[in-house]
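Show me a record, fold above all:
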Amino acid sequence: MSDRMSKEQVISALINACKRYGKSPGGILHSDRGSQYCSKDIRNRSKSMG
C-alpha cells in the first residue's frame, strides 16, 4: 500500500472495473482531479474502455 495513488494504480483499477462490470459506452469517470488522472495514458485507456 502507498500513501499516494499513481497513474499505474488508476489504470489497474480501470482494467479491473472493466473486467468486472464490462464496458460502459458514454460512462462518466469521476475523479478527485488528482494529477494522475490528467495523464495522457489514463485518458487514452478510459476512452478505449468506453
In short: The first helix runs from residue 7 to 21. The two ends are 28 Å apart (CA to CA).
